[in-house]
Amino acid sequence: MLFRKMSSSYRTILIAALILSVALVLPVAAVTTSITVTKYADNNYSQSVDAETFNLSQLRTLSSVYSNGPVYMQGPTFDSNDPWGDGGQNMINFYGHNGSRVSNITDEVGGMSDGDELKVQSSDGFSLYFGYDNVYAPDSSQGDMIVAWWDSDYGFVPDYTYGMRLFFYTPPSSYGVDDSLNLTLRDMEASFDPWYRHNYSLTWPSAKGLSSKYVQYLKIYPPHRYDFNTTGDTVEYAYEGDVDGVPGTSTVPSTAFSSTANIAADDSVSYQTDSENEGEYAAQRFVFNVAESAGNIEKIAVTWVGTGTNAGDTDGADLYIWNGSNYELLQSSTSSSEVTLSGEKTSSISDYINDGNVTVLVKQKSASNGDDASTLATDYVKFVVTHHHAN
Fold first, then answer.
1. Radius of gyration of the chain (CA)
2. Alpha carbon distance 140, 146 (integer Å)
3. For position 15, what pLDDT does the model report?
4. What is the pLDDT of residue 14?
5. Torsion of CA 209, 211, 217, 220, to 10 degrees
6. Per-run averaged pLDDT (10 residues), the chain, 391 residues
7. pLDDT value at position 188?
8. Cβ distance 215 to 122 under 8 Å?
9. CA 145/CA 305 separation, integer angstroms
10. Is the peptide bond preceding residue 253 cis, with omega within 30 degrees of 0?
11. What is the pTM of this model?
12. What is the CATH number of domain 34-222?
């Protein structure tokens, strides 16, 4: 009632003020004119090891990849009879572009290795993820990853108001429409791992959905390393004691290490466990609290560096991983010298993550005879998770 009694001019001013106040609190997507590339530490994803920012002029110096024709990307078909767009429908023309290869930008901070993941983040917070192959060894049907800073209609950023924008193309030798400039739904299927493809509303394949606007950040995340280095962002535990064989449970031995400082680096400084009880083996157990979801993990790998000795019997050590029911042998040694034992799993990952933890056991090769000790010494141990996000 009060609003109706106001004069029309006052109501207009009030409405305008309300609209302005709403606009001020809403996030505003903005054209970008620079790219910041960051490479993060493998044991601490909040700690960068290198970072560089490149403005338009610097990006043009790194590389300039002119499309030499119109760039097309296929959007969703919304056709249950043809979800992968074999009929060629909804091919969207983005016109000509020029930009820098993503690989040339990431090279400036040391590049990527197999297993690394690249996060492409826009100024509005929108993000997409890609694997090493998409950046450095793309399938011919994908084309190069390009951050475009020039558009044939609008020119350079900031006049190109959707830039900088991510595209995938390989310029043809002569100007014109060319398959190397097209990213179809079938191209996306052939070139990207399932988790890196884009599905509109989680249902309809959309290559167009991989073309993010306002790109501002390129962030490189290596596989996640878990160890006892205090600079890490991970959680892990170490235990020691005697066992009478391979344990049937994942909770023994259960005596916590007095200190984990000696196993934090591969530096020939070790933490030693002795068993002098007849029939008992020296053992050490390591528990890693896994931050990643099992469904997003591609590989888990364990590495142990140390020695196993027994003057009265067999030297060496055995490395195991708990699979939810029992321990599986990963690798063994009969050497009295320091050795590296390792193993990995690439399938049934959830079997090895129990209550959020992966448990690793190292056992000396032979039991004490009551006179000669079974001795196990760990120099270093690590657990590495290769994982991905989903687009």
1. 28
2. 14
3. 43
4. 42
5. 70
6. 42 44 50 98 97 99 98 98 97 98 99 98 98 98 98 98 98 93 98 98 97 99 98 98 98 98 98 98 99 98 99 98 99 98 98 98 98 98 98 96
7. 98
8. yes
9. 40
10. yes
11. 0.90
12. 3.90.420
Minimal CA–CA distance to 236: which of 260, 207, 205, 268?
260
Q: What's the rounded Cα separation, in Å, for the pair 48 and 35? A: 16
Burial class of 313 by CB neighbour count within 10 A (0 to 12, 13 to 18, 19+): middle
CB within 8 Å of 164: residues ≥ 6 apart: 31, 32, 33, 35, 99, 147, 148, 149, 157, 214, 215, 216
Q: How far is CA 387 from CA 109, 294, 320, 329, in A?
A: 21, 9, 22, 23
Q: In the prediction, which pLDDT does 344 show?
A: 99
Sort 348 into a burial class: Cβ within 10 Å, 0-12 / 13-18 / 19+: exposed
Distance, C-alpha 215 to centroid of its chain = 19
Domains of the chain by residue range: 34-222, 225-387
Token pair in block for residue 250: 């994942």
Predicted local confidence at residue 158, as pLDDT? 98
Two tokens, residue 83: 């979800």
Tokens of 96: 């000509």
pLDDT (0 to 100) of residue 24 = 41
- Pull the structure tokens for residue 167: 């595209």
Which residues lie below 8 Å from residue 178, measured CB to CB, with a gap of 6+? Answer: 69, 172
208 by DSSP, 3-state: which? helix
pLDDT of residue 29: 66
Token readout for 288 is 């890693």
Three-state DSSP at 218 gives: strand
For strands 224-226 and 235-243, give the pairing: unpaired
How far is residue 264 from each of residues 43, 268, 285, 325, measured CA to CA in Å? 12, 11, 15, 29
- The matching CATH number, chosen from 1.10.287, 2.40.10, 2.60.120, 2.60.40, for 225-387 is 2.60.120
